[in-house]
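Summary for the steering committee. The consortium agreed at its last meeting that each partner would contribute one worked example illustrating the joint modelling workflow. Our contribution is presented below. We chose a case with several input lines so that the handling of multiple components could be demonstrated. No manual editing was applied between input and output; the record is shown as generated.
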Amino acid sequence: MSGILVVTEHRHGEVSAITNEVIGAGLSMKKKVGGPLMVLVISDCPNTYANSLSYEGVDEIILARVGSDYFDSKIYGEVVLGEAQAHQPELILLGHTVNGMAFGPALATQLGGGFASDVFEIDCLEGEIVATRAIYEGKAFVEVSFPGACVTVMMLRAATFPAPEEMAQVSLSQSSLDLSEISADTNHIKYIEPPSAGIDIAKSEFIMSIGRGIQDEEHVSRFAVLADRMGATLGCSRPIADAAWLPKAHQVGLTGKVAASCNLYIALGISGAVQHLHGMKHVDTIIAVNTDANAPIFNVATYGVNMDIFELAEALERQFN
Amino acid sequence: MITRELFWNLNASAITLFYVIGISAILVFVAGCLRHISKYRRGRPLLDKPDYWQGLRNLVKDLATHRTLRRRDRWAGIAHGGIFFGFLGGAIGTAIITLEYDILYPAFGLRFWNGDFYLIFSLILDLGGAAILFGVLFMMWRRAALKLMKLDYLRSYCGELDLRPSAKAWKREDWFFMIFLLAVVVSGFTEEAVRLYVDQPEWAHWSPVGWLLAQILDSMELSVETATSIRSVNWWLHGVAGLGFTAAIPWYKAKHIISSTGSLLVRDSRALSRLPMEEGDGQLGVNSIDQFNWKELLHLDACTKCGRCHEVCPARTIGSPLSPRDLILDLREHNDACQTRPDRLVSLTQGVINPETIWACRTCGACKEICPVGIEHPTLIVKMRRHLVEQGETDPMIQSVLETISNTGNSFGESARKRGHWTRELEFPIKDIRKQAADVLWFVGDYASYDPRNQKVSQTVARLLRAAKMDFGLLYEDEKTAGNDVRRIGEEGLFESLVEHNSDAMSGVKFSSILTTDPHSFNTLKNEYPQFQETAPVEHYSAVLRDLLASGRLKVVKRLGRKVTFHDPCHLGRLNGEYDAPRAVLRAIGCEIIEMPRNRDNSFCCGAGGGRIWLPDTPGKEKPSENRINEAATLDIDVFVTCCPKDLTMFEDARKTAGHEDHFEVADLAELVAEAVALDSLDLGAVPEVIERLTDAIATKVADALVDKIAESISARLEGMELATSPQALPPSEEKNPRQSVKADGVSVAWQAVPLQALKIPDYERPEKPGVRILVAIKHVGKLGEEFEISPDNLSVPDEYKDFLLNEFDDNALEQALLMAEAIDGAEVVAVTIGPEEAEVTLRKVMAKGADRGIRIWNENLEGADSMTLARILAGVSEQENPDLILTGVQSGDIANSATGTALAGILGLPHSAVIVGTEWDGSDRMTVTRELEGGLQEVFEMSAKSVLTVQVGANTPRFASMRMIKQAKKKPLIVIEEVEVPKTSTGMQVRRVYVPPQTRAQMIEGSADEVATKIGQIIRANSGA
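What follows is the complete predicted structure of the assembly.
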C-alpha cells in the first residue's frame, strides 16, 4: 500500500487553517508518493467537518467517531495508529502545532518509521522523500530523508504551504476501528481566552515597532492606529518605553520582550541597536524603514526602505484604509 | 595669685553633692559607651584589620583641618569647627582642672592652674565658648531658616507625604542637642560674667567675652547682691548642665562625638574601589543586621544626618527609592531595636530595607565620597545584594544578564569569538598577545568590544596607539568581562570565576602593563584582581594618551580650540582619584574646558554603575544621564567629553532624549585626540615592524613543518572513528531491517509497524525512592553565533562555532519540577541529560538550582542521535528510576524537533501532553494541567499524574543559580553511564545536507511612498496567508 494520510486538527467546531495547508502539501506530494490522499477526522461528530475538507484531489475522508470533540493525545495517537495500520500510508502528515507535538512523536515511536517535525519544504528527490527544516534558530537549514522507512510521520510548519482552493465531492467512510475500546487520557475542563486588551510581544506573529524616529510622544497614537489597521501588534524600542510613551510591555529587545513567535516585523525609525536586534533579528521577514541608509537594522532586515517614516505612514494609511 | 576658686562659696556637703553628681554622670556616660560597644560586638569580626596608625593620622588631619566637613558646605563646616574646637577646648580645659585639683595637688601638692598659664587657659576657653556659641547659633539659624533639602527628613523621593514618627524624633533630637549645647555655653558665660563682675579681678580682660558681658552688667547697674545670688544658682546650673551633657553623650545624637571619630579612624578610602571578599564564615552577604561586621555597625552610629549623601545620590535625585542617609538611619534604628529585643532580628528585606532600595544603587560612590564621617554606604548595599543574589531574589532582568555573562563571558550575550571583531576594520592587525608578547596588554572590556558606537572608539584608540608606535596586543576571545559590575551586583561567585578566567588567560602571556578602555575594568583589574592574584600595573587610556601627547609620540597638528566640558567617570575619578589625566589631554589638544557645576569628586553618575546599565529606569522620570546632560546644557559648549564606554552609551542616548541634539555633541576623549593629531592623514597600515615579520616568518616555518604531522595524526584518528560525527548523520543501515527501502517509484513494500523499545540502561547506584520522584530531562544545547561554517561534508555545524548552555525550555521544565516538588513533602527531582563530558557544566547548574541528583549518559554512538534514539535512552532511564512524573522542555534550542518528550511517552506508554504552562498537583494520582494553544488560547484539563509533560518557555521564571551554588552543587551525586547499547542505525531520519539559508543585506524597496506602501501591503498579505 501507499498513499498519504492527513490528520485533521479542529477547534471550536472548525477545521484549523493548518489542516488545509497540510492537505495542500499532501496534494502536491500525492503524485510523487503515489496512492490515495486520505483525510482523517477524529471527533464526536466528525461528519460536521467533512464539507470543509472536501478538496479536489482528496480521495477519501475517514470519519472516526470518538467520545469527545476535544483533543486528547491518547485518542489521536491510537486512532491514527489504527488507521495507519489499516491503510498503510507511506506518509502521515499533521501540523507542527501544539496538538501535533502532543501526539505526533509518540505515534512515530509506535510506527517505528521516519519522523520529521517543523518541516517547511517537502519533496521527492531521487525517489526519496526529502524534508527541509531549520536548525540553530534558522541559521542553518537541513535536508533529511528516511531511508528504510515504510512510513514517515511528518509535522508541517504552519503558514508555509498553500491551502488548496478547489472543492469537490469526496467520498466519506467510517473508520473501521473499534473505537469504543479507546478511552481518553485527559478530561477537558475549560478554555481560557487570552486577555484581549493586553498585548504579548512574545506571542505576536506580526509586529510593527516604532523607534526614536517617531520623534515625539504625540505621534505614538497615529502609529498605534496604523498598526491596528494592519493587524499588527505595536512594539517599540527601548527609548520609547523608557520615555513612557508606550508601556514597557511593548518593548522589543534585550531588556524587553523577544519577538519569539513573530514571522513579520516592521521596524519604523529604529536604527538597530544590539539591544533591540536581540529581540527581533531572528524573525523570518523584517521590513526596516529608516532615513539612515547605513542603519544597522538594514543588516538584519529582509526588506529595507530608505524613507521618512511619516511619509510612508501616510501612504500606508491610504493602503490600509 | 592669678587663678580662680573652683568651688566658690560651697560648703563641704555641697562639694560632696557635686562629686556625687559628677561621678554619676561619668558612670552614665561609661554605661552608654559600653552599651554601644556591646552592640558593635554583635557584628562579625573584620576580615582585614584596619591600619590603625594610618587611620589615626588621617583622623587627626581630617579633624584638624575639618576638611571633610567644609567640603561643599563651607559655612556648616566652619560652624561645626567652632563647636568642635570650642568643645575640644572645654573638654581639655576640664580635664586639666581635674588633673590638678583631683590628682596632682592631692597626691603631690602640685598646682599649676594659676599665673600666666591660667590667663592663657582662660583666654582659650573663653574664645572656645564663643566659637561654640557662634557655631550653635549658626546651625540653629541654618536649620530653622534655610529649609535645606538635605536636612529635610521627608522622603518625598519615594512618595512620602508626612514625616514618619522616627523622623519627627530625629528632628526633636537635633534641636535638643543644639539647645543643650547652647545651655552649657550660655550658663558658662553667665557664670563667668557674674564672677568677673563681682570679683573684679584685674586680669578680667583675659576672658574677653566674659569681660564684655561683665561690662554690660555694669552698665545695667546690677547690684552685687543680685549678681552674687545669680552666681550661686547659676554655678549649679552650669555644673549640672555640663555634667548632664557629658552623661547624655552616648544616648542621643551627641554620640557622634565618639562614634564618628571611631568611624573616621577605621574608614577605608578604598572601600568601594576594592570591595570586601566573601566572609570567612561561609555566610555570603548580609541577611540580618548582626551579619554586618562591627565596623559597619559603628558606621551606622556615626551618621549625623548631615544629608550630604542624600543630596548627591543619583538614585534619590531621579526619584528612585534610595537615599543613602535614610538607608543608614533605617539600619541604625533597626540595629538599636534588635539590641534590646533580639526577637526583632529579621531578614533585612522583610520590612527594614526594601529590596528596590538595594537595587536602586549605582555604586557611584558619591555618598561615600562626601560623607564627613567615613561611612561606606555602597559596601553595605553590595553585601545585602550578595545575600539577595544568593537567594535568587533579584530582578529577573539581572538574573538573565548574570546567566548571559556566565554562559558567554559578556553581558551582550554575544559569542566570545566576536570579541575581537571590531579590529577587522583596522588597516593593520593587532597582535594576538597569546601568541606574541607585547609591552601592553589591552583589556578592552564588553562595551568597547561589542557596542557598535564604542567599537568605533576602540578602533580610534587602536589607531592612536599604533600611530604612537606602541607595542600592544589583545587577548581576543580569551578576554571575558572583568566583572566589576558583576561584583557590584553582588554575584561574588561569578565575579570570582571571571577573575579566575581572566587571570588564567593573562598568566601565560608576556606583557609589562595592562591598558583598559573601560574605567570599570580599570577599577577591578587595578584594585580587586590583586585580592586574588598578583597583577601587572594597570593604566586607563586617558593617562596613556596624556603621556603620549606629553612625550611627543602623538603630535598635535591642529589645536581644536573647542569649548568642551568633561564628565568624570565615577570609576576613574571618585574611585581611583584620576581627575587630571583626561583634562591634561584636553588642554594638550587645545580644548577650552568649561567645568560643569558638579565636577571632579562631585561628578554626577550617568546612572549605569552597579549593574544598573542592565536595568531600565522608571519610565517617564528624568534619568541620571538626562539630569547630567541637562546640567551640561546650561554651559556654552561644543562637546560633552567622556572617557568611559558606558558613559558614551548613556550620554549619547540622553542627549537625544533630553533634546540637546542641536546644542552639542557627545564624544570620547580619543575621538578628539584623533582629530587633533590628524589621525586620518597618518599611514597606519605601514609595513609591519621587523620583529613582527621575523616572528611571522618563524611561525610559518614551524607551521609548515607541523602540517604534515598533524594531517597524519588526524587521518589516523579519523580511521578509528565511526562515521557518526555529525548531528543526525547516520551511517547506512547495518541492522537487519524488516522494512525495505522506498523504491524510486515511491512504492513501498512490506509495510509494518515496529514499535520502538526502551534501550536498556545498566543498573546504577541511586537512593530509595523518597516518595514522589520527578524526572527532568535537560539538554546542553549549542547556540550558533553569527559567524559559522558548515562542516566540509555538509552534514553538520562543527561545535567550535557554538556556545553551549542549558536549553531554555528545559530551564522552565526544571523550574516547574522544582515548584511541584516543593509543594510535596520529601519529593525528589532527578535531572538526566544525554551529552558528552562538556554537558556536565549544565547538569551541575541544574543541580545547583535544586535538582537532587544528576545522571549523564553518553557514548560516542550517541553523537548526532535523533529524537527517537534519545527518547529510547530516556525511556531506559525511566525504567530504572520509575518516576512519578517526567518533565522536559517543549523543544531544544538547537535542533528544535519538539519530539523527545512526547516520543518518550510513546515508548513508555504513558499519558502525555505538550506545551504545558501550568500544573496543579498534590502528589495524588490525578493532576490539573494547562497547556498553551496557538494564539494565546489556553486549555485546562485533568489527567493522570504519572505522565510525561513538555513544558513551554515562559511557563515560570526559572531560578538563578549563583556561582557559589554551582560550586556547592558539586557535592550532589552525579552518575555517568557510558555502557549503553545504542543501535548504530536509526530509522528516524538521515541528514542529506546542511546548508546556510541564503542571507543578504536587506533588499531595498525603491519607489514613491505609495509604491512602497503597496509592496509592504503585499508582503503583509502574503505573510498572513490572506
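Chain A has a mean pLDDT of 90. Chain A touches chain B through 126 residues (CB under 8 Å).
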